[in-house]
Amino acid sequence: MLIRYGTNGKGRRVKIANIYTIEEHGITTGMIDSDALKIIKRLRHAGYNAYVVGGAVRDLLLNKTPKDFDIATDAHPRQIKKLFYNAKIIGKRFRLVHIQFQNKIIEVSTFRGLTPGDEQNTFGTIEDDVKRRDFSFNALYYSPVEEQLLDYIGGYDDVKQGRIRSLIPLDVTFKEDPVRLIRTVKYASTTGFQLPGKIKKALKKYSSELDRAAVSRLTEELMKILACGSSNQIFRYCMEYDMLKYIVPVIASNATEEMMDSLVTLDSEILERHGVKREYMLYALTRTYLNKPTESMIKTKTAFREVFKEMKAIIAPLTPPNIEVEKAVVLYFKELGISVRIPNQHSNAKYRRGGKRRRPQHRKGRPAESTTK
C-alpha cells in the first residue's frame, strides 16, 4: 500500500489517503467498460485527472459486474464537452455531462466543492468530493491508467469488512437528500451487508422525508430497484422501515405475498437473463393487483384502456412513460390469452398524452437534489 500526502493548515506534511495497488485491490483495466476507459484516457491526455468512482468500484471489489461506470474528474463540464462530440451537459443546480454511446450513457461529474448552503453545488477538489459522498464504500476512486485505488476515508476496509457507514451525520443525510433512504436499503440488499442499528432507526425516523422527493426521481429509483435483481428484499426493507407508502401507496396498503413472489420471479429472471425490459418489470410489479377484464369490456374494445388506467393507479403517483405502461398491459393480456394491441397513437392522441400537458409532478416542498450516485 502506498500513501498520498498533503499539507495541513500549518504547512506540515500529513497523510491524506491510502493508495492500493493492483496486487491488493485486484481490479484490472480489462474489468472496466471500454468506453469509460476511453473517456478517462482522453481526459488524462488533455491534462485532467479522471477516475472511475462510486458504485462501480464497490461492485468490482465485490467481484460483481457493475451496471454503470460513472467517472469523476477535475475538468469542468464545458471543458469535458469540448473533448467529446457525443457529450451533453445536463442539470441545473449541479451540472453533469452525459456522454452518449450506441447503447449506453456514461455520466461524468466534476469534483464537487464544499460551499455551504443552497450554493453548495460548486466545483472543488477530489478531497472535497470525497466529503460529499453518502457512504464510505461509494467514496473510492480507481485510476485505470496507474491501476491504483485511492481511499481517503477508509472505504476499502469497509467493503472488505461488509460495513455500511454513512459519511454524513444521519440526522442530516436523509433530510439533505430523501432518496438516500431508498438507496441505503438498496445497498444493503445488493451487497448483502448488514444495516447497523443506528441506520435502521434513522430509516424509520426519517421515512416521511420521501414525501417531499420529486416524483420523477422516485419513479426512476423504483425502476432501478426492479432492475437490480434484489427487488424482493428491497421491498421488504421499504415496508419494514415505513418507506413504501411514500413510494407506491396503493401497493404499500396491500402488499401481498403473491406480489412478493412475483418479485422473486422477476429477480431470478433478471439474474439469469442479465436484465429484462422495463415494461416487463412494471408488469411483474402490478399483475397481481389487476382485475381481469370482463367479456363486455373485451367486446366493446374498452378493456385495454381500463386496464391501462388501473395499472397507472396502482403505481401512482409515480410516472413511468405511458408507452412502457402500455407495453406492460399488453404483457398482462398475453398472460390471460387475450390478443390485444396498443391503441393507435393518432386516434387516441388525448388518451396517449393524458389530456392537456402538465408540469412535472413534485411532492410537497422543494425537490431535493442528489449529491451522489
From TrEMBL:
<dbReference type="Pfam" id="PF12627">
    <property type="entry name" value="PolyA_pol_RNAbd"/>
</dbReference>
<protein>
    <submittedName>
        <fullName>Polynucleotide adenylyltransferase PcnB</fullName>
        <ecNumber>2.7.7.19</ecNumber>
    </submittedName>
</protein>
<dbReference type="Pfam" id="PF01743">
    <property type="entry name" value="PolyA_pol"/>
</dbReference>
<keyword id="KW-0808">Transferase</keyword>
<dbReference type="InterPro" id="IPR002646">
    <property type="entry name" value="PolA_pol_head_dom"/>
</dbReference>
<keyword id="KW-0547">Nucleotide-binding</keyword>
<dbReference type="InterPro" id="IPR043519">
    <property type="entry name" value="NT_sf"/>
</dbReference>
<dbReference type="GO" id="GO:0003723">
    <property type="term" value="F:RNA binding"/>
</dbReference>
<dbReference type="InterPro" id="IPR010206">
    <property type="entry name" value="PolA_pol_I"/>
</dbReference>
<dbReference type="InterPro" id="IPR032828">
    <property type="entry name" value="PolyA_RNA-bd"/>
</dbReference>
<feature type="domain" description="tRNA nucleotidyltransferase/poly(A) polymerase RNA and SrmB- binding">
    <location>
        <begin position="192"/>
        <end position="252"/>
    </location>
</feature>
<keyword id="KW-0694">RNA-binding</keyword>
<keyword id="KW-0548">Nucleotidyltransferase</keyword>
<dbReference type="InterPro" id="IPR052191">
    <property type="entry name" value="tRNA_ntf/polyA_polymerase_I"/>
</dbReference>
<feature type="compositionally biased region" description="Basic residues">
    <location>
        <begin position="349"/>
        <end position="365"/>
    </location>
</feature>
<feature type="region of interest" description="Disordered">
    <location>
        <begin position="347"/>
        <end position="373"/>
    </location>
</feature>
<dbReference type="GO" id="GO:0000166">
    <property type="term" value="F:nucleotide binding"/>
</dbReference>
<dbReference type="GO" id="GO:0006396">
    <property type="term" value="P:RNA processing"/>
</dbReference>
<dbReference type="GO" id="GO:1990817">
    <property type="term" value="F:poly(A) RNA polymerase activity"/>
</dbReference>
<dbReference type="GO" id="GO:0043633">
    <property type="term" value="P:polyadenylation-dependent RNA catabolic process"/>
</dbReference>
<feature type="domain" description="Poly A polymerase head">
    <location>
        <begin position="50"/>
        <end position="165"/>
    </location>
</feature>
<comment type="similarity">
    <text>Belongs to the tRNA nucleotidyltransferase/poly(A) polymerase family.</text>
</comment>
